[in-house]
Amino acid sequence: MTTEVRVPTLGESVTEATVATWFKKPGDAVAVDEMLCELETDKVTVEVPAPAAGTLADIVAGEGQTVGVDALLATIAEGAAAAAAPAAAAAPTGGEDPAPGGDTVDVMVPTLGESVSEATVSTWFKSVGDAVAQDEMLCELETDKVSVEVPAPAAGVLAEITAPEGSTVAANARLAVISGSAAGAAGASASAPAPAAAPAAASGKDIANAPSAEKAMAEAGLSPDQVPGTGRDGRIMKEDVARAVASAVAAPAPAAEAAPRAPVPADDAAREERVKMTRLRQTIAKRLKDSQNTAAMLTTYNEVDMSAVMGLRKEYKDLFEKKHGARLGFMSFFTKACCHALKEVPEVNAEIDGTDIVYKNFVHMGIATGTPTGLVVPVIRDADSMSFAAIEKAIAEKGKRARDGKLSMAEMQGGTFTISNGGVYGSLMSSPILNPPQSGILGMHKIQDRPMVVNGEIVIRPMMYLALSYDHRIVDGKGAVTFLVRVKEALEDPRRLLMDL
C-alpha cells in the first residue's frame, strides 16, 4: 500500500511553491509527521510532514522544481516500515551507516528543476579531511530561482572537493567524494570537532537539523549543543540559531577565527565584501518593486497628539491587565481607530481585481512584525468586531509566534489593511510601501515631545507623525486625507471610538 505526499494549502493568494530541500531520499524509513521536505513560496517556508510511516518510495518533485497546490511530491510505501524502522534504530552513533568497506561515494548535484540546467557553488561547510555524517549539509548551490542545500549521501570522510566555491556546475555533475573506508569511519567517530556528527551522538536524535539552521550555525560559529531546538523532536530551526546569536550564546573564539577572512588592504576595492543576495531576498525585492510599478502609490501625512491615549493607558493599564490578562498597549488604540476610519472611507479597505473594485465589509488587519529572519505580517481577522482586550491578546500571541517562526501561511493571508510601527525602531518619519493587493497601509512613528501651540499658548506635547500610503487608482486624495484625519481625531479623543463618532 502506498500513501501520496502532496503540496499542502499555501494560502489564499499563493498558488505555487518551489521544492527547496528534501531531507529524505528514496529508500529511507520515515515516521508519521517526520519532516520530509521544505517548500519555499515568495512569503514563507512551508514544511511538509510524512502523512504515514513507511519507506520513501519515490520523489516526484525534485529540489528546485515548482509545484502547485495539491501537486504530488512523493509516495510512501507503508508495507516496508516495519523492516526499515528496526534497521534505523540499530544504526551506529548518530543513526547513519558509513559507506561499506573501502568504497567511495560521489556527491552529485541534485535535481535543479525542469528549466534550470546549472548552478553556482556558493558555500562549502566542510573541508577536505572533515568527518561527515549522513544527511549532514555539505554545501549550498544557488540557481536563478532557489538555493539548494546538498546533504551527504553517506557517512565518512570528505576525501575530495571537485567543485570549489564560485564554480558553475551542470545538473548531475560531481561535487565531491566521500571516503567510506574503515579508517575513514574511525576518523569520523574520533573527530570531535565535526560540528554536526558529535552533537548528534550526544543528543541521540535521528532527525537532522534544518539545513538552513546548519548553515546559520556555521556562519555564526555555533555548535548544535549551544542552540536549543524548538522544532519537531528537538530539531534545530533557523529561528533557533537567530535567537541564540541574539542572546550572545556564541563563544568569542569563532569570531576571532573568522576575522582573518576580511583583510584590510590599502585600496577600497580590496576592503569590500560582495555577498550574493539570497533567493528569498531577491523575491522580496521583486515583489516590492512590482508593488511600486503596479499601484499609483502616494503618501499623505499628519500628526497626532498622543496625550489622551497615553493618559488613558496610564490610568487603566493595571486594571486592564488584571481583568484581561493582557497588557494595554498602543496598537489596540490604533487598530480600533483605523477600523473606525475604514468604515467612513471604505475604498481604503478595498482592492482592485482586474477592472473591478472589491469592497470588503470587514477588516482583516495586518500587523507588520519584525522577526530574526525578516518582516512578516500576521493578520488579525475581523478586527473591527473585536474588543480592545481581544485585539491586544491576538497581537501578543501572533507576534510571539511570528518571532518564533511558528506562523502558518494562512495566518499571513487575506489582510485588507496593514499597520506598520516603525516607531519601535526610532523612526521619526517614513513612507510605508503597500502590501498588495491592499490599497492602504498606515505608518506609525516615534512618539516625541515637541512644542505645540494650543489655545494660543506654547505647550510640550507627545506627538507622533502618521503616514498613510494608498493606491491613488481607487483612493482619491480627499478620501486618504479624511481617513488620516479620522484616525487622528479618534486617538486625540478616544471617547469618539466608544460613541462611534
Automatic annotation (TrEMBL):
Residues 208-245 form the Peripheral subunit-binding (PSBD) domain. PROSITE patterns: BIOTINYL_LIPOYL, PSBD. CDD domains: lipoyl_domain. Residues 252-272 are annotated as: Disordered. SUPFAM superfamilies: CoA-dependent acyltransferases, Peripheral subunit-binding domain of 2-oxo acid dehydrogenase complex, Single hybrid motif. It is an enzyme of class 2 (transferase). GO terms for cellular component: cytosol; oxoglutarate dehydrogenase complex. Its cofactor is (R)-lipoate. Its EC number is 2.3.1.61. Residues 252-267 have a biased composition (Low complexity). It comes from the Bacteria. It holds the Pfam family Biotin_lipoyl. Residues 2-77, 104-179 form the Lipoyl-binding domain. The keyword Secreted does not apply. GO terms for molecular function: dihydrolipoyllysine-residue succinyltransferase activity. Keywords: Acyltransferase, Lipoyl, Transferase, Tricarboxylic acid cycle. Forms a 24-polypeptide structural core with octahedral symmetry. Part of the 2-oxoglutarate dehydrogenase (OGDH) complex composed of E1 (2-oxoglutarate dehydrogenase), E2 (dihydrolipoamide succinyltransferase) and E3 (dihydrolipoamide dehydrogenase); the complex contains multiple copies of the three enzymatic components (E1, E2 and E3). E2 component of the 2-oxoglutarate dehydrogenase (OGDH) complex which catalyzes the second step in the conversion of 2-oxoglutarate to succinyl-CoA and CO(2). NCBIfam families: PRK05704.1 (NF004309), sucB (TIGR01347). This is Dihydrolipoyllysine-residue succinyltransferase component of 2-oxoglutarate dehydrogenase complex. The lineage of its organism: Bacteria, Pseudomonadati, Pseudomonadota, Alphaproteobacteria, Rhodobacterales.
